[in-house]
Write a structure and sequence with these properties.
By secondary structure, the protein is mainly beta. Helix content is 13%, strand content 43%. It has an 8-stranded mixed sheet. It has a 3-stranded antiparallel sheet with strand order 1-2-5, with no helix packed on it. The longest helix is centred in the C-terminal third of the chain and has 11 residues. It binds zinc ion (2 copies). One zinc ion (ZN) binds next to loops.
């Protein structure tokens, strides 16, 4: 992984606070239907690894959105907090919950073939289609 940065964030109501020590500033945008349904728009996700501290855990509700991952949100204010891989415990967090990250770059777009036609980013990024993602992740398993 390239150089990481650290960041702190809080949900809208302040019940949940998150500190992530090793954030990859090269973030991913996911266009898949689950992400768009979850957030109403594509998911801008920074990889935070497992070096993550969450306070106010009793307010965090998780939803198992696929056989391999769960999504967490604040049960008081609804702020989306993370997408977590079950197997490794690695967190992907919405880039927008961190207010002060430096050096961010949109690096990758997942499920590029599922992006609806009503928006398009001009950022030049790598892209992976659904088929490419499935074959990549099954090769890791
Ligand atoms: Zn909250
Ligand atoms: Zn997605």
């Amino acid at each position: 992984m390239s150089e990481t940065i650290s960041g702190a964030s809080s949900c809208l109501c302040g019940s949940v606070k998150i500190t992530a020590k090793k954030i990859n500033p090269n973030f991913t945008v996911c266009h898949c239907e689950t992400c768009r349904t979850w957030g109403g728009a594509p998911f801008f996700a920074v990889q935070c690894g497992t070096d993550v501290k969450i306070t106010g855990n009793e307010k965090v509700k998780t939803y198992k959105s696929s056989p391999w991952a769960s999504r967490g949100f604040c049960s008081d204010c609804g702020t989306h907090l993370f997408y977590q891989l079950d197997k490794t415990g690695e967190y992907n967090m919405p880039v927008g919950i961190f207010s002060d990250l430096k050096g961010l770059a949109m690096d990758m777009q997942y499920f590029s073939d599922q992006r609806p036609s009503y928006y398009c980013f001009s950022n030049e990024t790598k892209e992976m289609t659904k088929a490419e993602i499935e074959s990549y992740f099954s090769s890791l398993a």
